[in-house]
Amino acid sequence: MILFVILLVLVVIAQVVEFFIPPVAWMFNAHVYIVPVIVFYGAAALPFPLMLGLSFFAGFLLDILTVQVIGAKVEIALGWSILLYAVLAAIMHGLRPLFIRGRWEAHCILTGVCTSLILLAQYLMIAFRRGSLVFNREVWWQIGGPGLLAMLMAPLLFFILHFIGRATAYSYVVDRNRFE
Amino acid sequence: MGEGGLEAHATTMNRTSVIALVIFVAVVGYLVSFNTDATRNLQAAVYQMLSPFLSTGSGLQKQITSVRTGLKSLEDLERENQGLRVENRALRATNQALRDVEHEVNRLRGALAYRERSAFKLVPAEVVTRDSSTWWRTVTINRGKDDKIEPDMPVVTDEGVIGKTTTVSKNISVVLLVSDENCKVAASVEGTREQGIVSGERVGGGMTPALNLNYLSKQANLQPGQKAVTSGVGGVFPVGLSVGTVRNFKVRELDGQAQLIPAVDLAKLEDVFVVTGRK
């Protein structure tokens, strides 16, 4: 439970920090996303109900801080990012036994893929709303770039979060016994 | 744990998970049903809660940036020095010519201060964060409802239009930049009768993207350098604010389209004004 609360706090901090990280110019101004890495770590480390709670919180923050209300329309209704996070986190959660055994490779790769999937889903929703679907090199970089960066960040962040988990006496092993 | 115990535990866990899932779906369903106003209010409340962190972060970022820009390499300094020498010679030449103009400017400046000269009530604001998401081009400013700012108010600098407010909380507001595809500005081209709608591009161009002036007549034949200003149609942006300069013009199947260079460098926004009304 302590780890869950820490992850919630880290999600808020990461969300605020993301505001101040400039886009990566050589990646066609792809943005750096830290929150998904924390959420997907939580998805692998926490039990299902807490994983849902973390996804809810992160999705809610993402929606509320980035989605634009323009005139009388909201392009992505509040709640969609929560669903996206929950579905992807559930996939990650399914690979939890591997994670508990210390095999993080799949989770690190999936973190990148899932980050890009969130952006792809957002883009498709926007494109549907705006009535035209454009896929050029820049769009692909805006979708794939953050995923690539998340994938690169994942091992380090996972290591730090795992260290925090251990420091708070969060028992991954006990969890394994419960679920397997 | 025995087999029976495990089974009982698994059932308990499943039950907890199912209950969590049901609650999750119910709350998400409730959020999805929010209308525009409710979403805007909730968004404003969250921004308000985070505003101290955003302001602190902005201050820190400025300090870090100033330290970083202060540390220049020798090569940079040499290049800068050479540039300054050339600039100095050019400035000496123009200085003489400007003396007459200076006299006139001083006379006018005394009579017309910027805010007096402006026909609008302007609220000065500072940019706190910029371009925080992938699909929308926005900045947040440190003014809100306390300063009588409301959604859909134009935001300008002395160089021209930069966008309009969308979500407004007590002392922080989100500004949708003119370079966003969703920020439509009715504009006309100086010296012609051409009118159209300016909007940004969905992706591309980074923080200094081109703007598109759409729905012009095919015969418009605009030339590079012509200025586009707000036409006042639509009610959000008042007439006569500079939007950009024509870069090129092309004829499409149904209309003409001009590409504009924004009047304001959107990558270097620091101090802006919110137009709260006419004087």
Could you provide a short overview of the structure?
The complex is a heterodimer of chains A (180) and B (279). Chain A is an all-alpha fold and 180 residues long. Chain A has helices at residues 2-20, 35-45, 48-66, 80-94, 96-100, 105-130, 137-167, 172-179; strands at residues 69-70, 73-74.
Account of the protein in words:
The complex is a heterodimer of chains A (180) and B (279). Chain A contains eight helices and two strands. Chain A is mainly α and 180 residues long. A two-stranded antiparallel sheet of chain A has the order 1-2. In chain A, a hairpin with a 2-residue loop joins strand 1 and strand 2. In chain A, helix 2 (35-45) packs across helix 7. Chain B is of the alpha+beta class and 279 residues long. Chain B has four helices and twelve strands, in the order H-H-H-H-E-E-E-E-E-E-E-E-E-E-E-E. Chain B has helices spanning 3-32, 36-70, 74-111, 114-117, and strands at 120-130, 138-141, 154-157, 160-168, 173-177, 185-189, 195-199, 211-216, 227-230, 242-251, 256-262, 271-278. In chain B, the strands form two sheets. In chain B, strands 1-2-5-4-3-12 form a six-stranded antiparallel beta barrel. A six-stranded antiparallel beta barrel of chain B has the order 6-7-8-11-10-9. In chain B, strand 1 and strand 2 form a beta hairpin. Chain B starts with a helix and ends with a strand. Mean pLDDT of chain B is 81; it is low at 1-11. Chains A and B meet through helix 1, helix 3, strand 1, strand 2 and helix 4 of A and helix 1 and helix 2 of B.
